[in-house]
Design brief:
Helices cover about 30% and strands about 20% of the residues. The protein is of the alpha+beta class. The chain binds flavin-adenine dinucleotide.
Length: about 400
């Protein structure tokens, strides 16, 4: 192979590592659906192979050295409330900043696009808190991280497993001070579709969505989000229930992900990061003795010696050792990639025919009374939900 244009589309993760081409010959461009793929400028390409050396499709295993798993959460109630699960993205980021290092994670920008940013100030950690269920753009960050490592700064990178594999490949030879944390990942949709969905949501309420969160804990830990909408006359918050919102509904059903996500080699017990974090779904059954989980709790897996070092040095986190086999029963993407359903192609075709509007119309037509399911569920007291889950 001469360059990344030869990597098959269904394999490409769209991580953007190949854009680090020394000749600036590779750029990611959106396809008709909005998924980004590398395009090689033949005039500039010297076939040096740098893009392939950095491509995580060619990633060969990790240095996993025996795993230990924990149920873990921040002791700080504010951090817990603002995070998606147990606030580990925040707390482990804080550990790195206290060491004098930098943290790279996914943040919203002012237009509600998601980008990886590098921060070195604890007061900015809130920018990367919370899950954004859309593929984050990593433009330029791999090179930035390598430069930081070369200058002697420790760096913590948090991202999807494919992004973690990309950063590890980019940092080959400078990895001593690189720490990585991969998230358990259900798959990534693209920013074009998400943007159209937000525009549609804004129009529906005669305003503009100015803030969006996929995981808002006002109604407890779960998959209810919140949008802040601004109109000419007022500003208000709208709960984002997955059975009421087309984007969230189709995302969680696995219809919006990038093609490569359905065969993701990283969605398994073999993890790519020093630490892996995700929601500790099923905690009620695995650890009925752990109380007060309404604000969320994470599953944290330590995969390497570096991961062990982080965990030994962490403060501000409450953690209990857990049985990974049991945790895997409740977390599909720790075992295998999300399932592929042919209905995804119907949805993608609808998008080509009429943009997000067509998808929204189909959603409205099909959802019927199920639309109210999540709103009704949210009315059930959390202790009742917990009891039901415990007895499953
Ligand atoms: C696309 C996606 C799919 C996920 N699928 C699952 C799943 O199937 N099962 C499961 O258990 N958990 C899943 N998670 C992880 C889960 O939602 C929480 O992010 C995780 O439990 C960490 O929560 P926390 O409270 O510990 O971290 P927080 O303190 O809230 O920090 C969140 C961290 O996630 C990173 N992050 C947020 N959005 C993105 C993004 N778009 N791309 C890359 N990094 C991002 C941030 O950089 C931050 O460091 C997914 C997350 C994402 C982004």
């Amino acid at each position: 192979m001469q360059n990344v244009s030869e990597i098959k589309h269904e394999k490409c993760y769209g991580c953007g590592a190949c854009e680090g081409c020394p000749m600036e010959a590779v750029k990611l461009k959106e396809d008709k659906f909005g998924f980004r793929y590398p395009h090689v400028d033949k005039e500039k390409c010297t076939a040096c192979g740098a893009c392939l050396r950095g491509c995580p499709v060619l990633y060969k295993g990790n240095n996993q050295q025996g795993q230990t798993a924990y149920a873990a959460r921040s002791r700080n109630q504010k951090v817990l409330s603002m995070s998606s699960s147990g606030g580990l993205g925040y707390e482990i980021g804080r550990w790195m900043i206290k060491k004098g290092g930098m943290v790279c994670g996914a943040a919203w920008d002012k237009d509600l696009l998601v980008k990886h940013v590098v921060i070195n100030d604890e007061r900015e950690l809130d920018k990367i808190q919370g899950s954004k269920y859309v593929q984050s753009k990593c433009d330029g960050v791999y090179t930035e991280i390598v430069n930081l490592l070369k200058s002697g700064y420790p760096v913590l990178f948090v991202g999807t497993p494919c992004q973690v594999a990309a950063v590890k490949m980019a940092a080959d030879g400078y990895e001593d001070y690189l720490y990585t944390m991969d998230i358990i990942c259900h798959g990534v949709p693209n920013q074009k579709m998400f943007k159209e969905y937000l525009e549609m949501l804004g129009k529906k309420y005669s305003g503009k969505v100015i803030e969006f969160s996929f995981r808002d804990k006002q109604r407890g830990w779960g998959t209810v989000g919140k949008a802040k909408i601004k109109t000419d006359k007022k500003m208000f918050s709208l709960p984002i229930y997955k059975t009421e919102q087309s984007y969230y509904y189709y995302y969680l059903r696995g219809f919006l992900s990038r093609q490569s996500c359905y065969a993701c080699p990283f969605a398994s017990r073999e993890r790519v990061g020093d630490i892996t974090i995700g929601d500790y779904w099923g905690i009620e059954s695995v650890h009925p003795e752990i109380k007060d989980i309404e604000k969320g709790i994470s599953l944290m897996i330590c995969n390497t010696e570096k991961g062990k070092k982080i965990i030994q040095e962490l403060s501000g986190i409450e953690m209990v050792k857990t049985d990974l086999d049991k945790a895997c029963r409740y977390n599909g993407q720790l075992v295998k990639p999300q399932g592929y359903d042919e209905k995804r192609e119907e949805l993608m075709q609808l998008y080509i025919d009429g943009g997000w509007k067509s998808i929204e119309e189909r959603f409205d037509k099909n959802i019927g009374v199920r639309r109210y399911a999540d709103r009704v569920k949210a009315m059930v007291p959390r202790w009742v939900v917990r009891k039901i889950k415990q007895n499953r």
